[in-house]
Specification:
alpha+beta, 5-stranded antiparallel sheet, single chain
């Protein structure tokens, strides 16, 4: 059954939309320019944290376990607890009783044993990580991380939570490569961590703040960051904890309509120019970007942007800049360091080895675009043929799509797509498709196609219009929409 983005999908964000009248500037003990000002403003605006009285926020004050339970209760929309959790030190009728009961029943927080919760005890940094980890559903860390210098001080029960919090960009260290797991959490630190968590898990769409942008490609960066290509501003953004900054690409002159025209310049990151950065993927010691209108693959590495000068023994067009692509779009990396490129207007897919050797993986296709590598196979959104295929050892196999343009769910070989441009594959083999021509996000599972989200002109709900790049990360599906100027964050299982 066709589904769209409904109020239920946006419910978590809506539950946090209670405005508070105060802001950081209203607190006498929050200095302008302090590192936690943005976090205080965010938590105030979302109704997560308030002041401590008499115009003070008490940023250096200690966060206790009752306070944290109350805040996480609000983050979750203040659900009703089904009964008492049985803690002997939780006073009936206290301001935190409902929150503690909910936290215990939801598996977010547990007591010390002996029937104690310790509501007035300080929250340690490792406890904060554990509480949030449980709230997120105890996901595995996104990327393996280097151990902290004081890793041995982290309690065994908190090790996975601490690794997850670091990889997701929710909780950082205290300097010198240390985590300080037993240190008490201050209110300022708690505000920053709550902002990071709430923006990552509860905001249903990730917007590049006040920037007029057109996100097209997306990949996971280091320390929980996201790297996003912007075909409007011709730059690459780094987004972390809800804040964005330009990672690569300099400002260029604007056309008569005010849009930057972009360019082609290999230089330091702020001085480099892109013409149409379509997709981004890890490659070598940095990130490859398909610069479609420059017909080139660019590499962001260290503090500079360079062109990937590929060589080949095939009869491909080459110049002093290496192999020439014809409107390269989709990118994907495999586990051996190879980069796959949709050579769209050449109707082929190429592979670039770590040594820069270019070979053809598949040809005779129809405008291939989105790519994803999974379990030894290269999945391709064959845009011109309105279908999804995979390439296994040079053999092309149909995944879904009858080849006819349309919007039909059902058996994979009979389902219809319209100019699909993006693709992602889950660990269980589920295939997610940015069905661009249909303004929809589709799913292929068990040989059946279903629609997860689609534009509905009769509704005012925010929904995809021109979805392109997809990324699966910690159970969320990130959808770049070039027309809506947003990156939607969906829970595919809620939409199923």
């Amino acid at each position: 059954m066709k589904r769209r983005l409904t109020a239920a999908v946006l419910s978590a964000a809506a539950a946090l939309s209670l405005a508070a009248p105060a802001c950081a500037a209203d607190f006498s003990d929050v200095a302008p320019g302090a590192w936690y000002v943005q976090a205080v403003d965010y938590c105030q605006a979302q109704g997560l944290m308030s002041g401590t009285g008499e115009g003070r926020f008490s940023p250096d004050g200690t966060m206790d376990r009752a306070m944290l339970a109350a805040v996480l209760h609000r983050v979750s929309g203040s659900p009703q607890a089904s009964g008492a959790a049985g803690f002997t030190d939780v006073k009936p009728g206290s301001w935190y009783e409902q929150a503690v009961n909910w936290a215990a029943q939801a598996g977010v927080a547990s007591g010390y044993g002996g029937g104690r919760f310790g509501p007035g005890d300080p929250v340690t940094r490792e406890q904060l990580a554990v509480f949030l980890w449980h709230l997120a559903g105890s996901p595995a860390p996104e990327d393996p991380a280097q151990p902290w210098a004081d890793q041995g001080d982290v309690s065994p029960y908190a090790l996975q939570a601490v690794d997850w919090a670091r990889s997701a960009g929710i909780l950082s260290g205290v300097g010198g490569g240390r985590f300080a797991p037993q240190a008490h959490t201050t209110r300022a630190q708690a505000a920053a961590v709550l902002m990071n968590y709430s923006r990552l898990y509860n905001d249903r769409m990730l917007s590049l703040l006040d920037n007029l942008c057109a996100p097209s490609g997306i990949t996971a960066g280091e320390d929980g960051a996201l790297l996003i290509t912007d075909v409007y501003n011709k730059v690459i953004w780094q987004v972390k904890g809800g804040s964005s900054s330009v990672c690569a690409g300099g400002e260029t002159v604007a056309d008569p309509y005010g849009q930057p025209v972009g360019g082609y310049n290999d230089a330091g990151l702020p001085q480099s120019y892109f013409k149409y950065p379509w997709a981004i993927a890890p490659f070598l010691d940095g990130y490859a970007v398909s610069d479609a209108e420059n017909n080139a693959i660019r590499l962001i590495s260290g503090d500079s942007t360079q062109t990937v000068n590929g060589t080949t023994s095939e009869r491909l067009i080459t110049t002093q800049l290496g192999v020439v692509f014809a409107y390269p779009t989709g990118l994907a990396a495999d586990g051996e360091g190879n980069l796959y490129v949709s050579d769209t207007h050449n109707n082929a897919v190429r592979k670039i080895s770590p040594k820069g050797v270019v070979v053809t993986v598949a040809e005779g296709l129809s405008d291939p675009m989105g790519l994803c590598w999974h379990d030894g196979a290269l999945y391709v959104a064959e845009t011109g043929a309105n279908r999804i295929i995979r390439v296994v050892k040079g053999r092309v196999e149909l995944v879904a799509g009858s080849g006819q343009s349309g919007m039909t769910d059902g058996p994979a070989d009979k389902a219809a797509f319209s100019m699909p441009q993006g693709i992602a594959v889950g660990s269980d083999g589920t295939v997610y498709v940015a069905d661009t021509g249909n303004s929809a996000v589709r799913r292929v599972r068990g040989g059946v196609v279903a629609t997860l989200a689609a534009r509905d002109l009769t509704s005012m709900d925010i929904c995809p219009v021109s979805p392109v790049g997809l990324l699966l990360r910690q159970g969320r599906l990130y959808v770049c929409d070039t027309f809506s100027r947003r990156v939607f964050v969906l829970d595919p299982e809620q939409l199923a």
